[in-house]
Amino acid sequence: MGVLKDELLKAIWHAFTALDLDHSGKVSKSQLKVLSHNLCTVLKVPHDPIALEEHFRDDDEGPVSNQGYMPYLNKFILEKVQDNFDKIEFNRMCWTLCVKKNLTKSPLLITEEDSFKVWVIFNFLSEDKYPLIIVPEEIEYLLKKLTEAMGGGWQQQQFEHYKVNFDDSKDGLSAWELIELIGTGQFSKGMDRQTVSMAISEVFNELILDVLKQGYMLKKGHKRKNWTERWFVLKPNIISYYVSEDLKDKKGDILLDENCCVESLPDKDGKKCLFLIKCFDKTFEISASDKKKKQEWIQAIHSTIHLLKLGSPPPHKEARQRRKELRKKLLAEQEELERQMKELQAANENKQQELEAVRKKLEEAASRAAEEEKKRLQTQVELQARFSTELEREKLIRQQMEEQVAQKSSELEQYLQRVRELEDMYLKLQEALEDERQARQDEETVRKLQARLLEEESSKRAELEKWHVEQQQTIQTTEAEKQELENQRVMKERALQEAMAQLEQLELERKQALEQYEGVKKKLEMATSKTKSWKDKVAQHEGLIRLIEPGSKNPHLITNWGPAAFTQAELEEREKNWKGKKGTE
């Protein structure tokens, strides 16, 4: 629901901005009433005509800002929206409010309908921040899709040249600048208006209407079993088929879910390139125009069912989300890099300040030395002037003073040499500080590497010690198990010997029992032979003599002397025998 709300807000933002005629950021309440009523109508939300007045009851009679209108918009409209409205009708209403104010008056290669589709695509690809813009990466993606739909080749070098001339003060293009860019034909040179319009419609169907694939195919009827050409449109959860590609006469839908499947069929009944779509309650036989189209449709439907099983959004929406996440990641990395550069710059400035302080100290020392030299020269001049009058009288003193002057000159030269050495030392100090900074970085890198190696070595040593302890325990366990197995083997050998003895005893008993069985069997055969001969004698006798046998479970005959010694079946058999004998006599 949050994604739907963000998409609706983009189109509403265009409409609100268009109503702000003086660019003050505010719109009158009367205009907002009309806008709110139209939004409720196209979004199929119950409209409360006095809700806006009650919401701003404590406000003045002046216009309402975007921030002031948002709470009302969220509470009374967007929170009540269901996914049962016509998105094209909603976008067209917002487009109607803003097109006259913003669309360029210069002639374009595309129609106003194509401009509307580009405007809707802009809202889909734009960033989720206001004012709405489309970044160069998304512009490149859209232009590539249009070029591919027109059957042309993508001119990457031309787009790179366009990005170089892109205004650095802007992060992207507005909707109207994007319409002007496409409408001027800068990236569609050599293409006619119809080709550009068809390319815009194809990209619009894919990105906005979620049309994954469309085209003419033959469909077999369920009742009359005839084949009819239909225009098929594949969406993320449904395949609709129409009489023609103008989508005016819809003939039916094929609802797709995770239980559906698509199968290739062999050619039959004069139809080629057949495949079958199996759904919960129906199956649909379809014939493509050629094998390539057949494979493309099978792959597209199979991919759609796979996405339904995974619960994933359509490919273009998932790709858009991945591109946004990648841009956020790159932006975060760039901000982190800028932060690190600022830290390095601050550290460099601190070093520069330290070096500037050292330089000032050296300059102060040189200034003091110059002042001292100046004073010394002034004192020398004064001494020369004072002693010139006494030159003849004090030649010896003059010679001594000349020696002192020569000595002072030598000291001055040494001092100046020292100043030059200090300047060289200052330059070397700068180089040494730079080398020290680099050495510290290298030392820190080596220290981290050593720490990681020590940690790995420690973990490996602990693992080896653990393996050693486990090996010792395993050896001890193996010795105990070996001793236990040896004891069990001895016990089993004893049990085997006892079992062998018992087996021999049982074999002897079996032979004895077999001999007894043979004797009993012979006696039984003799008794059976005798019994059989006796039965034959009794059967030939015509009297009422009958061997005593177990009684039958069937009902018995009753005679004057009690229960009969024979059954009804035996009686019938004997009657037949008597009748046969009488007939022979």
TrEMBL record:
It is found in: Cell membrane; Cell projection, Lamellipodium; Cytoplasm; Nucleus. It comes from the Eukaryota. InterPro entries: EF-hand-dom_pair, EF-hand_SWAP70_N, PH-like_dom_sf, PH_domain, PH_SWAP70. Keywords: Cell membrane, Cell projection, Coiled coil, Cytoplasm, DNA-binding, Membrane, Nucleus, Phosphoprotein. Signal peptide: none annotated. Residues 316-530 form a coiled coil. Phosphatidylinositol 3,4,5-trisphosphate-dependent guanine nucleotide exchange factor (GEF) which, independently of RAS, transduces signals from tyrosine kinase receptors to RAC. It also mediates signaling of membrane ruffling. Regulates the actin cytoskeleton as an effector or adapter protein in response to agonist stimulated phosphatidylinositol (3,4)-bisphosphate production and cell protrusion. This is Switch-associated protein 70. The lineage of its organism: Eukaryota, Metazoa, Chordata, Craniata, Vertebrata.
